[in-house]
From TrEMBL:
Keyword Signal included in the entry's annotation: yes
Recorded superkingdom: Bacteria
InterPro entries listed in its UniProt record: Transglutaminase-like_Cys_pept (IPR010319)
Organism: Gellertiella hungarica
Signal peptide start-end: 1-26
Transmembrane residue ranges: none
Pfam families reported in the protein's UniProt record: Peptidase_C93
Official protein name in the record: Putative transglutaminase-like cysteine proteinase
Keywords: Signal
Keyword Signal included in the entry's annotation: yes
Residue stretches in coiled coil: none
Length: 202
């Protein structure tokens, strides 16, 4: 299937996605934030080395209005980055265990998230609605995704798949995400869907 056909099929499902996100959920469509959190070490070092990326503060004007146009941009950026960046670990790229950076053809999960965030800001999304988020995978490994806050709920852009889903529909355990008012600030997430034994990056 061509990229155009994939995007058209995803956009055609727009109405269904909105309908589903409007249905009452056992878990809210938007994450619950319960206080401040320490940034992941990779995020701290990224901000230290790239202060212009993190020294801005934003006014939180609320989640973006999810229209057909904004949904199309979300799907397009997620697919574009997933299909052009080759997954590779920081150890293989930089020789270190953890390094956050914009990908140059290769990258790992947080690099994908950084690139998607940058591209969505370029097409008009507010930085306060584009939040890099740290999660646990079902196997207990740490992972990073991009959360897009919308009036229909928090949607997840993931380098492991092209489908964009509500956070509550994923199998991840949510730990923390960037603050809506500062790229350098981080907030702890209340994920009440399951009990997790142990966690990372807290």
């Amino acid at each position: 299937m061509t990229k155009t056909k994939i995007l058209k099929s995803c956009i055609a499902a727009f109405g269904l996605t909105l309908a589903l996100s409007g249905v009452a959920h056992a878990v809210p469509a938007s994450m619950s934030v319960i206080g401040r959190a320490n940034p992941p070490i990779g995020a701290y070092e990224f901000c230290r080395d790239n202060p212009s990326e993190c020294d801005q503060t934003y006014a939180d004007v609320g989640p973006v209005n999810l229209t057909e146009a904004s949904w199309k941009e979300i799907l397009k950026v997620n697919y574009q980055v997933n299909s052009t960046v080759v997954p590779m670990t920081d150890q293989d790229i930089y020789g270190v265990e953890e390094k956050w950076a914009y990908p140059q053809d290769v990258g790992d999960c947080e690099d994908y998230a950084l690139e998607k965030r940058k591209l969505l800001i370029q097409v008009g999304f507010s930085p306060s609605d584009l939040l890099i988020t740290v999660v646990l995978q079902p196997n207990g490994d740490g992972h990073a995704v991009l959360t897009v806050r919308t009036d229909r709920g928090d949607f997840i852009l993931d380098n492991m798949q092209n489908k964009v889903m509500l956070w509550s529909e994923t199998a991840y355990r949510y730990l923390k995400r960037q603050s809506v008012t500062s790229a350098a600030g981080w907030d702890k997430i209340q994920d009440g869907r399951a009990t997790v034994v142990g966690s990372v990056g807290q």
